[in-house]
Amino acid sequence: MPLIVGLGNVGDAYKDTRHNIGFTIVDRLAKTLSAGMEPTDGPYILGVGRFKGVKTILIQPTTLMNNSGKAVLKACQMFHYLPSDILVCYDDINLPTGKIRLRPEGGAGGHNGIQSIIDHLKTENFPRMRFGIGDNFERGRQSDYVLSPFNDDEKPVVNEGVENAHNACLTFIREGIVQAMNFHN
């Protein structure tokens, strides 16, 4: 039973921003899995669904991005997950807009949400999917950039990327990270 985590920030001010692409991917996946995303007592929004008979848990942390590890740890404890059962979806300025890359483990690469998960789980050994948001920002303006929406020219590429990310998640659910990497990287 896999756990798919989409990173982002809760609230209208952050909706549809580059930093919230993880939430967007999980929302798209929730539709396919018929998993209604509902607030919980835990620090996350939760959805439970099935794909090809495989029960899957979806979460979107309600902590701020930089404290996502708290929510992921709580979900792992609640549902008895090992880090290898998780797929974390998040934004990456080091990839071109709309491109995805899956990895079975690794460092934070400067992403504070991933660093928080590493710190809370006490391991770098969990699968992740990076979603490219580009790096078209002036020096010192990274924070403004990641908290901005995609422009109209980028939206078709982003929509295609979200669909690719959605399909990669479905492969992860059925066949694991190695097959997801083989088919979608």
Give the SSE layout.
Blueprint: E1 3-6, H1 21-33, E2 38-39, E3 44-51, E4 54-61, H2 68-79, E5 86-92, E6 100-103, H3 112-121, E7 128-132, H4 142-146, H5 155-175, H6 177-184
Parallel strand pairs: 1-4, 1-5, 5-7
Antiparallel strand pairs: 2-3, 3-4, 6-7
Proper CATH architecture = 3-Layer(aba) Sandwich
The sequence of SSEs as H and E is EHEEEHEEHEHHH
Question: How many structural domains in the coordinates?
Answer: 1
The helix count comes to: 6
Q: What portion of residues is helical?
A: 25-40%
Shape: globular
Gyration radius, rounded: 15 Å
Instruction: Say which CATH homologous superfamily is assigned.
Output: Peptidyl-tRNA hydrolase
Compute the separation of the termini in Å.
23 Å
The CATH topology label is Rossmann fold
**Proportion in β-strands:** 15-25%
- Largest β-sheet summary: 7 strands, mixed
Give the overall pLDDT as a whole number.
95
Give the C-level CATH assignment: Alpha Beta
Q: Uncertain regions: pLDDT < 50 for 5+ in a row?
A: none
Would you count the extended β strands for me? Answer: 7
